């Protein structure tokens, strides 16, 4: 297995030399500066690739192995195959990536909002901070800040009462903060930052789009783009929904093993694969992570390894240390290693320590939310230790 590291580009607080010091060898990156929907050019991709792969004297080499992500425009999620111009632009981006020899592309199909949290610096018992999704705070936002018209129907009476109590204790600063976190697009997001009025308009645009229709649109998208990926030797990897359940009454269709099975049945090409994210899938207690890895092993080309801890009834959760929480990381890695051993080195699974606690000196720095250097380095070291114990040292 190959050690990856998500790098947000030359303006990011974590530098490429920082990455080298973690032991990672494979970079996961994207052209975040390119507007969503505009086709990437080969020149733009090569510029980023050169920045990553041109190794200074006496430095360890790095390789750009995974594009995370080429954003899928909202029009594709709403209209499927009818969004021809947007799909053609996405294929052009894919072709630019393939021309540069980058073999894996990650993407997601979450409508309106990408990965979602309500707190970025939840204080853990160690004094480090973690990201958290608090169901009551989320409901308070949905019901009383966003004031979504149909929201009350989707919460129980008890949920509504608890949300009102939470909302009534929020200061103006807290209201502004949760609004910013939910609507402004977290790092790596493939959706646009929104104001509250724009957010409401987006939700209206999805009226009548249920899970079956959204899944059909995803299948239509893949039927259009998979032949291009297959012809160019690129693996497409669908990231799970985060969290893996409906938000704002919107359907989510990559939350369970059955969701992925339905997709792979509809588009059987081996170029269509999975980004196996233990953090996203692990939020659901009914997702058996080792079984999912075993079931879809040939489809897994990229893995996000992190853990979460479910709180209370499981709807609230926070990011835990990589070997804590509700994920049996040893069992997960045992399955991934078994699959990796069946492959040649060129097909080896790229994994990265996903997210990480804000800890030690990073508590005193400006960091990218979810992506501080030290917490991710700790996670990578722990994952590397498991791999050595399994007699499968990573490359």
TrEMBL record:
Superkingdom classification of source: Bacteria
Signal peptide: none
Tagged with keyword Iron: yes
EC number: 4.2.1.8
First-level EC class: lyase
GO MF annotation, one: ferrous iron binding
Keywords, in A-Z order: Iron, Lyase, Manganese, Plasmid
GO biological process per UniProt: D-glucuronate catabolic process
Pathway terms, separated by semicolons: Carbohydrate metabolism; pentose and glucuronate interconversion
Reactions mediated catalytically: D-mannonate = 2-dehydro-3-deoxy-D-gluconate + H2O
CC cofactor: Fe(2+); Mn(2+)
InterPro entries the UniProt entry points to: Man_deHydtase (IPR004628), Xyl_isomerase-like_sf (IPR036237)
Family of this protein: Belongs to the mannonate dehydratase family.
PANTHER family: MANNONATE DEHYDRATASE (PTHR30387)
Functional summary from the UniProt entry: Catalyzes the dehydration of D-mannonate.
Protein name, UniProt field: Mannonate dehydratase
Organism: Rhizobium etli (strain ATCC 51251 / DSM 11541 / JCM 21823 / NBRC 15573 / CFN 42)
């Amino acid at each position: 297995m190959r050690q990856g590291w998500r790098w947000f580009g030359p303006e990011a607080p974590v530098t490429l030399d920082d990455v080298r010091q973690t032991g990672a060898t494979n970079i996961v990156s994207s052209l975040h500066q390119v507007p969503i929907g505009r086709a990437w050019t080969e020149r733009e991709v090569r510029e980023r690739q050169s920045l990553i792969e041109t190794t200074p004297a006496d430095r360890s080499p790095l390789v750009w192995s995974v594009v995370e992500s080429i954003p899928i425009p909202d029009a594709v999620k709403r209209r499927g195959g009818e969004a021809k111009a947007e799909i053609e632009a996405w294929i052009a981006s894919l072709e630019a990536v393939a021309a540069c020899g980058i073999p894996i592309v990650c993407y997601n199909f979450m409508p309106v909002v990408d990965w979602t949290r309500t707190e970025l610096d939840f204080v853990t018992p160690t004094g480090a901070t973690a990201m958290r999704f608090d169901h009551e705070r989320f409901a308070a936002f949905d019901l009383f800040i966003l004031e979504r018209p149909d929201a009350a129907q989707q919460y129980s009476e008890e949920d509504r009462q608890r949300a009102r109590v939470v909302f009534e204790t929020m200061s103006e600063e807290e209201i502004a903060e949760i609004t910013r976190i939910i609507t402004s697009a977290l790092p790596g997001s493939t959706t646009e930052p929104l104001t509250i009025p724009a957010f409401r308009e987006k939700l209206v645009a999805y009226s009548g789009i249920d899970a079956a229709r959204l899944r059909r649109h995803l299948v239509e998208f893949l039927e259009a783009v998979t032949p291009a990926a297959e012809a160019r030797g690129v693996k497409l990897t669908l990231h799970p929904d985060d969290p893996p359940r409906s938000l704002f009454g919107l359907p989510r269709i990559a939350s369970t093993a059955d969701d992925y099975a339905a997709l792979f049945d509809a588009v059987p090409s081996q170029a269509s694969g999975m980004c196996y994210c233990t953090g996203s899938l692990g939020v659901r207690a009914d997702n058996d992570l080792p079984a999912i890895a075993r079931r879809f092993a040939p489809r897994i080309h990229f893995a996000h390894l992190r853990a979460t801890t479910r709180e209370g009834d499981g709807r609230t959760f926070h990011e835990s240390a990589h070997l804590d929480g509700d994920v049996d990381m040893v069992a997960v890695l045992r399955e991934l290693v078994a699959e990796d051993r069946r492959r040649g080195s060129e097909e080896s699974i790229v994994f990265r320590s996903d997210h990480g606690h804000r800890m030690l000196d990073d508590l005193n720095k400006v960091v990218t939310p979810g992506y501080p250097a030290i917490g991710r380095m700790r996670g990578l070291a722990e994952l590397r230790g498991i791999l050595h114990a399994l007699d499968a040292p990573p490359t």
